[in-house]
Amino acid sequence: MLEWRDAMALDNGGLDRDHQEEIALIRRFLVLPAGEEGRPLASAVLEELRDHSRRHFLREEKVQAAIGYPHLAEHRAQHRRLCVLLDEIMEQVQAGESAFSFGYVKQKADQLLPFWFLDHFAKADLRMKLHIAKAQLSPRNGQGQGRDAVR
């Protein structure tokens, strides 16, 4: 089961809280019923996850810009692809014409959402950890760096 671990901490602040909330939203989705009664709840949780993720991605990109993160453009492109993926899942959940089709989409999303989070986190977000730590230790240098840049 997808769960937060202390080893996942990036900034001991806003980014970590965002990641914890994303995990909680994914876990809420995973326990929803795959029958027709789960469709409205699934739509609501996915909408909340999408909106939360978009806010988080903007916050993360702002931190990356503030600390001069060298992979910002690549990371931003990944965020855009993840937003498209979430939109596609939402459309499929809402468009399912039968309980069977919703159940199928729900089953696929149950597999995809934890993978999406862990894959992006492990391959992209963890790459920031060293850069964030350096920025938190640096005194302000007129470019917005220092502990406040990553809060």
Automatic annotation (TrEMBL):
> A Gene Ontology MF term for this entry?
metal ion binding
Q: Does the keyword Protein transport apply?
A: no
Q: Please indicate if the UniProt record lists Ribonucleoprotein as a keyword.
A: no
Q: Which Pfam families match?
A: Hemerythrin
Against SUPFAM superfamilies, the record matches this protein to: Hemerythrin-like (SSF47188)
Q: Which residues form a coiled coil?
A: none
Q: Which InterPro entries match?
A: Hemerythrin, Hemerythrin-like, Hemerythrin-like_sf, Hemerythrin_metal-bd
Under CDD domains, the record lists: Hemerythrin (cd12107)
UniProt keyword annotations, A-Z: Iron, Metal-binding
UniProt-listed PANTHER family: BACTERIOHEMERYTHRIN
Tell me its family: Belongs to the hemerythrin family.
The name this protein goes by in its record: Hemerythrin-like metal-binding protein
Higher taxonomy: Bacteria, Pseudomonadati, Pseudomonadota, Alphaproteobacteria, Rhodospirillales
